[in-house]
Design a protein that fits this description.
disordered N terminus
């Protein structure tokens, strides 16, 4: 085969910026089919995610229920965790009231809705209630149905279900001349004055109706309720009135019980009945802020965690596991029938590969980058273009010492411009982009070419980026980033690759067919030129996949300050992408998922900041803190179970997963949220990109 002429070492100097509008590939060439996957792959890509989501929901619900039940059991906050037997003063008051003639009714077990309980559940609850009453020395004369109908008439089938357990659903019937029952003092717990209109209206109404039964709830017992009843009972001509007090439970104050028991002294009263709830939870373990139950707020927090963290993680991991076998089987099917080495180029495909490495003030790293390119084991022809983007150091001088083409731009025009200039002079049919502060593994180019040969319908291939070893010295931040890179690439990018829709082809290692660059070029519209280029390619129906075997090593910030500067550029760049490609982004599930991370981050910070205030509402703060710690520990353990297999061969990173979740994830959420808020408010943040510093809004 004739080898293409690459050319001798030469210098170029250009400053022109190239930019072309988006053109759909399918419309670019009428005879060329739009880039799509095979029908079998499309079917798998549609079927596997659905199954994975269903399994993830099932797993999440199971784990969530397990955690919720376990924490409630620990906190003693499940209905029925405390009984009146544990309140001796309340028991004394109830016994004294019974001795004064007050009838005791069982008000369910923990005030549950008996219309939805099975006969077996009803029987169990009644038996438990009877046992508590017996130990308390209280005789239940009737079962007062919780959530009783307003008219007091119990459904016949429900009545039979309860009375089959040997207890009546009605208090003893008295002969009365009245014809009504009502609750005149409902929600009087908020009443603060006798001048309250409710007091006057109820006083007039009760005299007009002359009820045979007066209902009230113990929580509404106060000086106003007491005076209201005293005035009526002492002045009415009615006799045998039944006064029923509902919802006496573990938190009812003994003195209130004793006070209400005095209602038996009125001649107009035929009977006083207390509806006692045997089991419940103490108010100290069920506090409120205003009228809002703190436990309910905590349940909302718990649900937020389950939905935003556990569900996506379960979904992605299950999806990866189900799809991995198919991907491996597909890769194993690729066998070279003519016995060639996989590193050899396919004779039917273009052999010339152009590797492009832009550099700005990279005198310390450019040499290693170029040497790694020259050491590639790819057996086809390879053209190397190094772009000096107006560096002020010795970058150009160092490049000139290597057998590569030097594109020497005297003025710094930015990375996008440098890449576009190199594309203009590149001769290869396959272009591979890399960064000057990164160096490729020896088989990176051959792995990318092999991937393109196996996937004829793919036009771009993303390599895998790993953190530079740096002579074995790794600080805490480096370990964290190593975990982050591995997780992102092995899970998220792997899943995106299944449908050929990778969102970001990394700057350190990406292969592109030349015809893509004939339509799409890099742009300086954002500070994340690689992501912008990738999205423009996706908008042009380009299929983009991943090749995990194509590896490149890059430097990572070693300090928190350096990390912040880098991520500030990345995250603000991603927000810029939303602004530029919004119409496309809102239709892309991965873009929506990424953007939702910003919103979830802000919500998480708000929730976390409010937790101390909520915890202080409880009486047993140490127990609540212990519950939180156990929940956190279980979450970390679950995360390690999910993610740990990725680091089975690297024990150091496996050990670092715990501080990664506790420290690094928290830092990311805080920084992400603050940047997002600055973006939303228009305040913006200064970002340094190359030789330029500007405010991103």
């Amino acid at each position: 085969m004739m080898r293409k002429h690459i050319g001798d070492f030469v210098k170029f100097q250009k400053t022109k910026v190239i930019h072309q509008p988006d053109i759909i590939f399918a419309r670019k060439e009428k005879n060329e089919k739009k880039f799509t996957s095979s029908s079998s792959n499309r079917m798998i890509n549609k079927f596997v995610p659905i199954v994975s989501l269903l399994l993830a929901v099932l797993v999440t619900l199971s784990i969530g229920l397990f955690l919720y039940t376990g924490l409630n059991h620990l906190n003693g906050n499940t209905p029925g965790s405390t009984t009146v037997l544990e309140e001796p003063k309340l028991l004394d008051a109830l016994r004294d009231a019974q001795d004064r003639g007050v009838l005791m009714g069982m008000h369910g077990w923990a005030h549950e809705n008996y219309s939805i309980l099975t006969p077996l559940q009803t029987k169990e609850n009644i038996e438990k209630g009877k046992e508590v009453f017996e130990k308390a020395g209280i005789v239940p004369v009737a079962f007062i149905l919780p959530e009783e109908p307003i008219n007091g008439i119990v459904d016949e089938s429900l009545k039979q279900k309860i009375e089959s357990n040997g207890i009546s659903t009605q208090l003893p019937v008295l002969e009365t001349s009245g014809s009504n029952r009502n609750e005149y003092t409902w929600e009087w717990s908020t009443m603060q004055s006798f001048d309250d209109p409710r007091y006057q209206e109820a006083s007039e109404q009760i005299r007009e109706e002359n009820p045979e039964t007066i209902l009230l709830h113990v929580q509404d017992w106060n000086p106003y309720t007491k005076q209201f009843l005293t005035d009526y009972l002492s002045s009415t001509n009615e006799m045998n009135i039944t006064v029923r007090v509902d919802d006496i439970e573990v938190n009812t104050r003994p003195e209130v019980v004793s006070d209400m028991a005095k209602l038996t002294q009125y001649e107009s009263v035929g009977q006083v009945a207390f509806s006692v709830i045997p089991a419940g939870s103490r108010k100290g373990d069920n506090p409120t802020i205003g009228n809002i139950n703190v436990n309910k707020i905590m349940e909302i927090y718990f649900g937020f965690f389950i939905i935003t963290s556990l569900l996506p993680l379960s979904f992605f991991v299950i999806w990866k596991l189900l799809s991995q076998r198919h991907k491996k089987r597909k890769q194993n099917k690729y066998l070279l029938e003519d016995g060639r080495d996989p590193k050899d180029p396919d004779p039917k495909d273009p052999m010339l590969v152009t590797v492009i490495a832009p550099a700005y003030n990279e005198e310390k790293a450019i040499g290693k980058c170029l040497q790694a390119i020259l050491n590639q084991d790819y057996k086809g022809e390879m053209e190397i273009i190094a772009v000096n983007d107006g560096s002020s150091d010795r970058t150009a001088e160092i490049i000139s010492k290597y057998p590569v083409k030097l594109l020497d731009l005297k003025v710094n025009g930015g990375k996008a411009n440098a890449l576009n200039e190199a594309i203009e002079i590149a001769k290869g049919d396959i272009l591979i982009f890399t960064d000057s502060d990164s160096y490729m593994a020896p088989d990176a180019v051959s792995s990318l070419m092999k991937c393109l040969n196996e996937n004829k319908d793919a036009q771009m291939v993303a390599g895998n980026v790993y953190i530079h070893d740096n002579r074995g010295k790794k600080g805490l931040m480096k370990y964290f980033q190593m975990i982050e890179y591995r997780t992102e690439q092995d899970i998220t990018r792997h899943l995106q690759s299944l449908s050929g829709s990778i969102l970001v082809c990394p700057g350190p290692l990406t292969a592109v067919r030349r015809k893509v660059c004939d339509v799409v070029r890099f742009s300086s519209e954002t500070i994340v030129e690689d992501a912008d280029f990738t999205i423009k390619a996706l908008k042009n129906s380009v299929k983009i996949i991943q090749e995990p075997k194509a590896m490149v090593y890059t430097n990572a910030p070693e300090t928190l300050r350096g990390w912040y500067k880098q991520r500030k550029r990345w995250w603000y760049g991603n927000l810029q992408l939303w602004r530029l490609h919004k119409k496309w982004a809102i239709k892309n599930p991965w873009m929506i998922f990424n953007y939702s991370g910003y919103i979830i981050g802000v919500c998480s910070i708000i929730l976390i900041m409010s937790i101390p205030c909520l915890i202080l509402q409880y009486e047993n703060i140490p127990l609540i803190l212990m519950s939180g710690i156990l929940c956190l520990a279980f979450s970390i353990m679950l995360y390690i179970i999910y993610i740990g297999p990725l680091f089975a061969k690297d024990k150091r990173l496996l050990v670092m997963l715990i501080p990664y979740v506790l420290i690094y994830a928290t830092i990311k959420v805080v920084v992400l949220s603050s940047l997002f808020l600055c973006y939303l408010t228009g305040k913006g943040v200064k970002v340094k990109f190359g030789a330029k510093t500007f405010v991103v809004r």
